[in-house]
Amino acid sequence: MKAKKAVKKPGARRATAPKPAMIVTPPRPATPWKGQGGILCTLLPTTDDNRRDYYLVLANKKPPKPMTWAAAVKWAQQLKSDGHDDFSLPTRAEQAVLFGVLPKQFDPHFYWSNEPNAGNPAYAWGQWFYDGSQSNYLKSNECRVRAVRRLPI
What we know:
It is a single chain. The chain has 153 residues and is an alpha+beta fold. It has helices spanning 69-78, 92-101, and strands spanning 32-33, 38-44, 54-59, 110-116, 123-128, 134-138, 148-152. It has a four-stranded antiparallel sheet. Strands 4-5-6 form a three-stranded antiparallel sheet. A hairpin with a 6-residue loop joins β4 (110-116) and β5 (123-128).
C-alpha cells in the first residue's frame, strides 16, 4: 500500500519551530562584553509572558553632551556599536539595576529612561545616579543619556 502524498493547500503555511535560545558564555557582570557593544550589567528576568529572560548590556558609547528626552530617544535608536544597532534607553527598572551593578559607569547626575510620564505627557522618568532615586523631568530639559541593549536567552 502506497502512502498518500500530502497536498499543500494554497495559502497554507508550514509550521516552523521557535528560534532556539541564544547560546553564549557571558563575562562577569561589570565587564566589557567583546562583540556585544558594551558592558554586561546582569541577567534579568522578563516581566512579559511572551519574552525570555535577557542579558542587559550598557552601551560603550556616550553622547557628547546632555540632551532633551526626544533627542535622547533618537540618539539611542541610531546608536551602533560592535555591529549592533538594537539599542534604546533603559526602562526605569533597568536603571535601578544599572545603579546597583554599574554605578561607576555613570556620573552623579540625572539620566533619561525610555518611559514618559503616563499622567503628564510633557514629562519623562529618569534616574538620579548620585542617590538612586527616580523622578520625572520636563522632556525639554537637557539631561544625561546612556543606552542599553537586551540579549534574550
